[in-house]
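Page header: ASSEMBLY MODEL / two components / 554 residues total.
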Amino acid sequence: MIVSRPERVMNYVVLLVFAAFALAPILVILTTALAPSTTSPGGLATFASAWTQGRFGHYLSVSALVAVVVVTTATLCSILAGYALGTMTFRGSGIVFSLFLLGLMIPTEAIVVPLFYDLRGLGLTNTLWAVAFPQIAQSIAFGAYWMRAYFRAAPRALIEAATLDGASPRRVLWSILVPIGRPAVTTLVLLTFMWTWNEFLIPLVMSPNGAFRTAPLALALFKGQHVEATGLLAAGAVLVALPVVVLYLFLQRHFIRGMIEGAVRE
Amino acid sequence: MRHPRHLPYLYLAPGLVIFAAFVLYPLARSAQFSLYAWDGLGASTWVGLANYADLLADPVLRAAFGHAFVLIGFFSLVPLALGLALAAILTHGRVRGLGMFRTVVFLPQVIAMVVVAVAWRQIYAPDGTLNTALRAIGLDNLAIPWLGDYTWTLPAVGVVGTWVQLGLVTVLLMAGMAKLPKEMYEAARIDGAGPVREFFAMTAPNVRAEMAVALTLTIIAALKTFDLVYVTTGGGPGNSTTVPAYEVYTRAFREGAVGSAAAIAVTLAILIFGINLIVNKLVDRPAG
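Prediction written out in full:
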């Protein structure tokens, strides 16, 4: 392809401007965290005091617990449901699939009000279940849709051959399809982890007394108590963002593929 | 695959039961709640569609939906225009470091919105990064409190949305443009078409599907904005940056207007569903 020299220089300038725009806020928060101030020692010591004084160590462990529960349960249920929808014929499969698609479109705002009042009536607010299960349910909507697409694309001949050799549907799933489908499952796990880790509204509403306060919530409430402690606040923000960002930098193909392909409806 | 007739239902059951109990059932309950006046504690009164009538009558709610539409401009239209130009440059500009750029520009998508909000609050603070920079170049009279101004706070929040969504839109469009045949462009260049004409004649019409997906995702993100407003402005100053999702939260959990909150929530869900339907209809039509 022929591209003139001035055009290429122009292209590089445009790219640099937009890369700078994307990185600037991230650099602002990093420098704020690392710079010494009246309320924070600066450098890595600021992170240490955010971890202990700001109790971010505690809130991050709550986040980790919620994430592990949501990711394992949702992934398992998604694989099972996607397997049925993708490889088996049965009455009602179309309706079930439509319901999952509907679930993909339903915003959290549309379910969070009755979730709170109904679970409060059952005495379940301020428990792990109230914070985890709504997120598991939302992740299953995406996961069933995502895994169904993978199972539909899996080679039929392989399934037929295994069945002829006497493998049960359970064996076909766990010994053949899931091992081959590791990339699809990895993408699902990563996206579910990201959504759960970054979620704000559900933990805010479902645990009003703060018993299950996740790290993003702690960060939002931290501002109220420490107006001047911008260094600690910035360090807390970096700590909250770090796990997902590190995973993204190593496995960005999965993140980008999942978010792009998962968005393109059939 | 051959299997006993009951087997698919066994595989479906765990996921479907959780999904039905924690998404479908609450959605139906939201619709039910929206027909009552309830303070969250005492008895509830049937009011029919009065909560929905309020969406049009209540100036705060009208403003909230108005703000959401302003945010759509910042979350969807601006990123789409910029993303088209960026993706076109990246796909055909023969530049190096594409992978690197893609990684950087997509990064805002994976950072928790609360963290994003904290970062931008630092930028917009009265003595924050932006005003320091403005004063440094002698534009002192432009250094306003960006998150405390009746005129400028909503656009300031909108710019954060632009920052978050730009990478997603660009990467989506790049994926679409990568599928277009190289020969088509070679031929156009030999015929003497410049980059601008090439873009409007060939690139843009061929990524309609990706544009539609980008618009759907970003419009929905704009309509669902909550964390960003909660952390940066709390709907203020006054009601100048309140949005529907923020009204759902304050009415349901602070002001004891649960029915009204549910009506806003149901309206949001219907809006989002409608946008999905419309965009899918537009894309399903064969190009031409």
